[in-house]
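Weekly modeling sync, notes
Attendees: S.R. (lead), two postdocs, one rotation student

Agenda item 3: backlog of single-chain predictions. S.R. asked that every request posted to the team notebook include the full sequence so nobody has to chase files. The rotation student volunteered to paste the first one in as an example of the format we agreed on. Action items at the bottom.

Example entry:
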Amino acid sequence: MHRFDPRIYLFTLGHFSVDWAQGAIPALLPYFIATCNLNYQDAGTLIFANILLSSIAQPVFGYYADRVSKPWFVPAGPIISGVSLAVLPFVTDYWLIFLCSMFSGLGSAVYHPEAARMVNGLAGAQKGKALGAFSVGGNAGFAVGPMFAGFCAYVFDIHGLVFYGVFNVVAALLIHRYMSGILADLAKVQRVERRQHAGLAQENDWPSFGKLSLVILARSTGFCVCNAFIPLFWIHVLGTSESTGSFALTLLFTLGAFITYFGGILSDRLGFVKMLHVSFLVMIPVMFLLVRCTDAVVATILLVPAAFALFAPYSGIVVLGQTYLGKNIAFASGVTLGLQGTLGGLVTPLVGRAADSYGIVTALQILWLVAVLGTVASFTLHTPEALKHKKKENA
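Predicted structure, as returned to the notebook:
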């Protein structure tokens, strides 16, 4: 059996560094609302800024990486994301905050496609486990990022955000140190794969990828809306403190980090499509109950199955995307990995506007509605085994 390459954990670290910077933004929303007199729509627009450039640029960087690999994208992403957060304590103008939030998303867009392509090459037959390990970094980042940002904004000092920049630069230098050896081994893997599959050309199955995009939209909407509004829901609906609201978000993503890793291992054994079925079927009732909850303790308990529903299918979606677009793995990675965390952010300003007009509880009904969409879409997907069989028949 192919030995699990420990260098994959370097990419896990890089994934942590870009996503803990992105994850900090939602936890800072109450701070910006208080200091800049923002409304819910303004706050949601900051999340929109965080994902706008990322949503547009991520597939572009992936498309480019499939044709002309740019390994320097991998260390550049953490630097861009970290420095953007480090600048925030020194600006007070709303549009400068908007730009910093946007460039934090750009760092994520630069990092994801090239890094995920390299992880795919190092993974061998353990792609679910490898993408799970890689994704743990992102989910751990979204867990720790809000907690540390909340500590800086509400307990310590907002200037502590500078540490995001320091940490990310160190992570980028560490990745850069091992990059030459990784590139050499990836070149060997590519030569072996070309010899083994000389008569079987890689193809893109765009119809299947289009169906997968509906799954991505559903999962991403749930992810981004929870990311943006869970602290606000805990504060303004459940009546908790700001720090408790940040803790709820941290708890969700801490659970998500563990669930993502073991979800990847389980997907290798049970099948990626089956994992999607289970996850979305769980998501419908859990989100329905969560957005109607009025007790903080019960809501906190519901975060456990909510985390499973949101994070268990994470790596499976990436592997399916890379399978459906076998000729454009980096592009598929940019769409699946990146847009899982960003596409739904396009919806957050609309959710914020609905919250301003009708209240947070009414606006958050979207969480179980998109779960229904994800469930239906997941049952239209082909398994990787079925696609391989189809290719052999057509060869």
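Discussion: group reviewed the output briefly. The radius of gyration is 20 Å.
Action items: rotation student to repeat for the remaining queue; S.R. to check formatting next week.
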